[in-house]
Structure formats: C-alpha cells, structure tokens
Amino acid sequence: MANKTEIPVRKNQVLTGTVMDLTYQAMGVIKVDNGYPIFIGNALPGEEIKYLVTKANKNYGFGRLLEFITTSPDRVSQENSVYLQTGIAPLAHLTYEAQLKFKQEQISALFQKDKLDLTVQPTLAAPEATHYRNKAQIPVRAIDGQLETGFYRQRSHHLVPMTDFLIQDPKIDATVKEIRDILRAFNVPAYNEEHNSGVIRHIMVRRARKTGQQMVVLVTRQRRLPQEADIVDAISELPEVSSIIINYNPKVTNVILGMQERPVYGNSYLEDELLGKKFRISAQSFYQVNSEQTENLYRQAIKLADLQPDEIVVDAYSGIGTIGISIADHVKQVREIEIVPEAIADAKINAQLNNVDNMDFTVGLAEEILPEWVEKGQKIDVLIVDPPRKGLQPEFIDAVLKARPKKLVYISCNPATLARDLRLLIDGGYNGTTTQPVDMFPMSNHIESVTALTLN
Ligand code: SAH
Question: Element (H or E) spanning 325, and its range?
C-alpha cells in the first residue's frame, strides 16, 4: 500500500490495467494501487488495456490508450475515430443499447449519492441513433491558409476538419459544406481566435424537419462581409435555404452568437411542426435539437402531468412555447416564463398560429417572476419546468414550496442538478416515484429525463 501522499504512477510510464468505470464525460477509469484514478479516452468498463501515463496529478491522472488486451462486448469497432476525438459524438464507441444503459445508470448513481428513492426507468431510445440533429453550429478556422469547417478536438479549440458530422441531418452537413466552398471561392478570411482577427467565426444551420426549410446564420467578427451581396446570393441558391442572417459577434468569447443580427435573405424565422402544432423559430430562440424525440419527451411530460380542464399550468423556461401550446387545449390557462425576449415574441405568434387564446407570456428570470406571482397569491395547479443545465435557483424552489402546486413535472438536461433539486423538493414535501430518461442526444453524453412529483 502506497503512502497517502505518494503518487503511485509517473508520467510516461507504460502500464496495463482493467477499466472499472466510465465517467459522465465518457472517460474510462482505471484505479491504481490505493484507488488513484487514471482517466483514459476510448476505454470501456471491463476492458484490459495497455496505456501510457500522460499526466500524474496529486489525486488523479490521465492516460492514453496504447493497445487493447481484451475488448468489451459493448464496443462498436469505430473506423472513424474522429468522432471520439472531437466532442461531437463521445459515446460513438458504445453500442446504442449500452449508451441507453449508461445514461440510466448515470442518473441512478447520482440519485443514490443523494439518497433519492426514485426508480430510474430504462432510457427511452431515440428513433434514430445518428443524423438526428436539426441544428449545427460549426466553427470556421484556417488550416494551412485554407478555410475549414469541422469540430473541435475534445476539451480544446483545435479544429478537426470534417464534412460528415454523424449526428446531424445530412442535409445540414451538405449545406455547411456548400457554404464552406462559397466562402473559399470568395476568399473570406476565417476567424483567428488567438489574434481575434479574420471574419467568419461560425456557420449555424437549423433545419425544420417538417417543412424542410433551412436557416443559415453566418457569425462574423465584422459588421459586413466582404462582397456580402454576392455571397448571400450564392448561399440563397442552395437547396431549401429559406433564410440567411448575419450575426455580428466582435467579442473575444466562447459564446457563439452575438447580440446583433441582420436578416439578409428571406424570413427571419423558420417554420416547423411538433405534435401537430405549428411553430415559428427565430435564430436566437432555443429549439430542441432532436425533433422526433422531442415529441416523445413532450408526450411523456404531458402524460405525467395528468392534465385536467380546470387547471392552471405554469410552463417555466418555456422557450418558444412548444410545451405550453401542446397542452393549452387540455387546461384552463397556461402561463409562460422565459428569459429570452425573442423566444417570447415567437411564443406569442405561435399561440396565434395555433388559435390558442388561454395563454399569457412573461419575459423574465423564472427565479424572479415565480416568487412575484406566488407573493400575489397566484394559484398554480401544475408546474412544468425545463431549466438549462444549471437547474433551478434556490429562490425558485422556495417559491414552489410556498405555492405548493399539486403536480410538478421536471424536465432536466443535467442529472446532477436534477438530483440536487429533487432532494430539496422532496424534503419540502413532494413525492416522486420514477424518473424517465429520454434519449435526446444519441452518441453524445448528454442526458435528458422527465420526473413527475406530487404533493404528499
Ligand atoms: N421548454 C422549451 C425550452 C427549454 S430550454 C422547449 O422544450 O423548447 C430552456 C429555456 O430556458 C431556454 O429557452 C432559455 O432561454 C430559458 N432560460 C434559461 N435560464 C432562464 C431563467 N433563469 N429564467 C427563465 N428562462 C430561462
């Protein structure tokens, strides 16, 4: 047994070991000596491997796989390792069955840690495990003087050029490649992150599954593109492009979209359909990336909410109103809260498009608006929440525990914050029995789930 302060491995050592676990970030874990963990990419539980120690920190290390001694039955032989090296598909080496199980187990492990007594159901599989994404945000960089599109190597900003993105709608991939070629033909300089120079930073393409319409957003460091009219003309002739927007982002930042944008061709929105309802989507608005599976997610949420005609529902973190509009016919009133003004503007139009007149819309932070409503004595029968990765704010949870809606449906894209919030809600008097993971992001390590809570 090694001394506690002693690091049991050295950099550049070649070792063999058996992988014990797979982390949330899809790294294999080997434990050396007294439990010192070494994280190794492309290594799966049960596999015996030879590896090189690349980093030996005080409490953990990193290694690089050199050779498989045995391989897991859950492994997909990955011909194109570019998907694993980049962040686009970090689970592409796992069979789809094993991915579903991995996601279920990730949630279970977090629940166990927080002593949450909910059963995690088997993950609801997506209809398609590849080519499902309706949106691409593709970085543009120069490599050896040539403008390239691709994806970043994991945990870096090193661009790996690629044209087949595996998980995106192939029509989006084709559009991105055509735009790359147009930008090359017009000699548009790619963005240089180090010097904050160059012009074109990202190409975003969103495609509406139902209508086929494609929106192209060119994110630029300059207000105008050189030869803008000609470039816009060329892009507008690509198949199904219904709108082109120039988004101005001069800042040194990892945030992709800037605040100012200018429609230069067609509509400033896309039109799509979910669960038979029509939706208009602006560039700045959130829209679920896997349309087919979104319908399944919403069906689960609606079923769990067990809606009644006399109920008042609050749909917090509502985006463009997709959930609210899908349920409005079944209840008395739906109240939407959302922070992005463009999304609320879309939501209002979407309600009209679907002849819904029992909804209202508030732009603001859910953690400010809900407490105000509760203070004023607003009655809430059902609360639906669908927060971003950071989960619910303490002020929001306090307001829920004051208002005590009899049903709460929590749609989560981050099991860690879900577990944290469920602990507080359950300690505050709510009851939950099951969580249903719904795979919105095959091949990626993101985990979506829906949980219903009721009052004791
Ligand atoms: N329910 C919608 C949107 C979910 S994504 C759908 O299914 O499409 C989460 C949404 O919450 C985004 O639209 C985001 O803009 C919004 N949001 C993020 N933080 C917020 C906050 N603190 N208060 C209100 N809305 C917020």
Answer: helix 322-327
Pick the residue whose CA is nearest to atom 1 on ligand 1: 318
Q: Among 367, 365, 348, which Cα is nearest to 356's?
A: 348
Residues 307 and 436 in one domain: yes
- List residues near ligand 1 (CB under 6 A): 286, 288, 317-319, 322-323, 337-340, 343, 365-367, 386, 388
Cα-to-centroid distance, 275 and ligand 1 (Å): 20
Structure tokens at 116: 């949450």
Q: What CA–CA distance (Å, rounded) separates 247 from 237?
A: 20
Distance CA 283, CA 267 (A): 11
Task: Tell me, yes or no, whether 52 and 180 share the same domain.
Answer: no
Average pLDDT over residues 56-74: 96
Band the pLDDT of 322: cuts 50, 70, 90.
very high
* Ligand 1 atom with least separation from CA of 366: 23
- What's the whole-number mean pLDDT along residues 150-164? 92
Query: SS3 helix, strand, coil % of the chain, rounded to 5?
Result: 25, 35, 40
Band (pLDDT 50/70/90 cuts) for residue 78 is low
Q: What whole-number distance in Å separates Cα of residue 276 and Cα of residue 278?
A: 7
CA–CA separation, 257 and 135 (whole Å):
14
* Residues labelled as active-site residues: 413
Mean pLDDT over 202-214 rounds to: 97
142 is in which domain, residue-wise? 135-270
pTM, whole model, 2 decimals? 0.95
Burial readout 77-106 (b: 16 or more C-beta within 10 A, e: otherwise): eeeeebbbbbbbbbbbbbebebbbebbbeb
Provide the domain count of the chain. Answer: 3
Query: How does pLDDT run across 296-316, given as a tens digit for each residue?
Result: 999 999 999 999 999 999 999
